[in-house]
Write a structure and sequence with these properties.
The complex is a heterodimer of chains A (223) and B (216). Chain A has 223 residues and is mainly α. Chain A has helices spanning 3-22, 24-44, 48-75, 80-88, 93-123, 133-157, 165-189, 194-221. Chain A starts with a helix and ends with a helix. Chain B is an alpha/beta fold and 216 residues long. Chain B has 7 helices and 10 strands. In chain B, α4 (111-120) crosses α5 (136-150). The chains are: A mainly alpha (223), B alpha/beta (216). Chain A binds chain B through residues 3, 6-7, 9-11, 13-14, 17-18, 21-22, 79-82, 84-91, 216, 223, and chain B through 49, 52, 54-55, 75, 78-79, 81-83, 85, 87-91, 93-94, 98, 102-103, 105-108, 130, 146, 150.
């Protein structure tokens, strides 16, 4: 394993070990996400066709809001002493970014997997083209994980911290949300989805490149 | 002639509008250990951050381990610097063994070295305890284990003896000796000069953002 990926794996392992200890995703956030999915039908009424239509969108909105919040918290969880010490360990900032994004991706994948059956049960979205889901899920989860990691690093680097960061990252969340929901909508209506999948790939790549290239200046700004 | 490990010339640091360090000169040669003393808020920790390349001087120039502090050269020498700050750098939800294991994996050092370092600082039996559940003194020992694992050329200890029992205080002397013996240097910050007097070659008092040698 190269030095970069060895370091990224070490960071991912550290973050996931911390998550296993605190249980923030499975024990705290996932139940809240499930409750949010449950409350939406109560708010819009028992219009089954309407629920089936909005279900995929609601699912991704909940995954975005709750999942990204968890991932963002974990990315920003390191205090200044820890950030300074990892710098002195010779940890490549880009590898640190990659490792945190990998850990966030794993957390979001678990979160999305737990809420998926809940959304299907509550909204009965009558999906077609399930064979595309194994492609859609990783693309969307990867994008959200990268977005949350970038947001976490911005939180650490900017004095304004958590207040301003959601406003900065919200525009980046829109194409991810749009791509994920429109792929499912396209599958339901039998319309082409390739363009939406390519949008997800493009956003993932843009976030990954921005994160890796921006890691060093953001890390220095966070000191 | 060997170039100094630390060489600061006319260095100033401002935090916001406040000048914390002013016109500061400091040279620490290979094999030397230096003590820094001063009252709370005198800028001791800021000076250590400059030496650790974590803060860039706003005036003057400096080199640490040959790297210009104002250029990207400083990133390359960071792995050769060992810093124990006054705030613990451990991950509280991880055990001591996991904390040290993380350091070993990042540096590409065998996991056995992490266990050996914990044993050397007397924490072998507590290695599976979470850092958050450890006393300040134990966390300090674990930080020393991290430094042992890194074996730095420049050792920086902030309030080196804070919260340590006499046995752990011997570790400060051990770490300093190791850095000196390998041709490196050590800078020990303490508000109490007498605690580090036996370990260092000379001491400086930091007051009003300026350094002054301490005689005797």
């Amino acid at each position: 394993m190269s030095g970069f990926w060895r370091q990224a794996a070490a960071v991912a392992r550290r973050d996931l070990t911390g998550e296993v200890r605190t249980g923030e995703v499975l024990l705290v956030t996932a139940p809240f996400g499930a409750i949010a999915l449950l409350l939406i039908p109560m708010a819009v009424g028992t219009d089954a066709p309407l629920l089936a239509r909005i279900g995929p969108g609601m699912y991704w909105v909940v995954v975005l809001l709750f999942g990204v919040l968890v991932a963002l918290r974990r990315s920003a969880a390191e205090g200044r002493p820890q950030r300074e010490l990892v710098g002195l360990l010779g940890l490549d900032p880009a590898a640190r970014f990659a490792g945190q994004a990998l850990a966030n991706g794993a957390l979001l994948a678990v979160f999305a997997a737990v809420l998926g059956p809940v959304a299907v049960a509550l909204y009965d979205p009558a999906l077609r083209g399930w064979e595309w889901v194994p492609l859609l899920m990783p693309l969307t989860v990867a994008g959200l994980a990268l977005l949350a990691t970038v947001a976490g690093w911005l939180t650490a680097a900017l004095d304004s911290g958590p207040t301003l960061v959601p406003l900065l990252v919200a525009p980046l969340a829109v194409p991810l949300l749009l791509g994920a929901t429109q792929v499912l909508e396209g599958l339901r209506l039998g319309e082409p989805i390739l363009g939406w999948l390519m949008l997800l790939v493009a956003v993932d790549l843009a976030l990954a490149v921005a994160g890796v290239l921006g890691a060093r200046p953001l890390e220095e700004a966070a000191r | 002639m060997t170039s100094p490990v630390v060489e600061l010339r006319d260095v100033g640091v401002r935090i916001g509008d406040v000048p914390v360090l002013r016109n500061l000169d400091l040279t620490v040669g290979a094999g030397e250990a230096v003590g820094l003393h001063g009252a709370n808020g005198s800028g001791k920790s800021t000076l250590l951050r400059v030496l650790a390349t974590l803060a860039v001087p706003s005036a003057g120039r400096g080199r640490v381990l040959g790297a210009d502090l104002a250029s990207g050269e400083r990133f390359a020498v960071r792995p050769r610097i060992g810093l124990v700050g006054h705030e613990p750098g451990l991950y509280p939800e991880l055990t001591l063994a996991e904390n040290l294991g993380f350091v070993a994996r990042v540096r590409g050092v065998p996991a056995a070295a992490a266990a050996a370092a914990l044993e050397q600082v007397g924490l072998a039996r507590a290695s599976h305890r979470r850092a958050a559940a450890c006393s300040h003194g134990m966390q300090r020992r674990a930080e020393f284990a991290r430094v042992l694992l890194a074996d730095p050329d420049l050792l920086l200890l902030d309030e080196a003896h804070a919260g340590l029992d006499p046995a752990a205080a011997d570790l400060v002397a051990l770490l300093t000796k190791r850095a000196r013996d390998r041709g490196g240097a050590a800078v020990l910050v303490s508000h109490d000069q007498s605690r580090v007097a036996d370990v260092v070659d000379r001491s400086y008092e930091l007051a009003g953002g300026r350094l002054a040698p301490v005689s005797g």
